[in-house]
Write a structure and sequence with these properties.
Blueprint (H helix, E strand, L loop, with lengths): L2 H5 L2 H9 L5 E3 H7 L5 H13 L3 E9 L2 E8 L8 H6 L2 H24 L21 H15 L32
Antiparallel strand pairs: 1-3, 2-3
Length: about 180
Amino acid sequence: MESLDLLAHPIRLRIVHAMGGGRLLTTSQLCARIPEASKATVYRHIDLLVDGGILEVAEERRVRGAVQRHYRLRQDRAVIGPDTVRTLTPEDHRRAFATAMTALLAEFTAYLDRDAADPVADRVGYRQHALWLSPAELDELIVELRAAIAPKLANRPGPERTQYLLSPIHFPMEAPRPDNS
């Protein structure tokens, strides 16, 4: 299964989100992060991600007679490359965007359902800005955003850190006008 097919599912995308930052998690821990899905569903999606090379077994431990596996995300495989993006149809983009939004909504709902959820204290944000940009300005903005975000992707969990989901989305709202009005 291609990375796009593997990642274009809300449960698998949430598993990938949970595994970020070099975390090692068990299936039970992932089930706890995705309580609205049955354990069988989470197990099935983990197996698909392992078979597709996006997750790997980092270690195995014997716990009360059973083997407990800790999984690790293969960040290099959890991406959709530019060559694949160039081949996508508008329907493929629509499906991928819907999956991303479904996973985002599920993650936000899970956050709000926690007893200690405090959007103000947690600095939750969901602003949208309509910008006027030339192609060169958009390229510059993308480079600047990547430069700001990329080093933080290597952060590991720690006592002072909370995992945040950041979802930059950009698309043209209208076609450029020749008279710039």
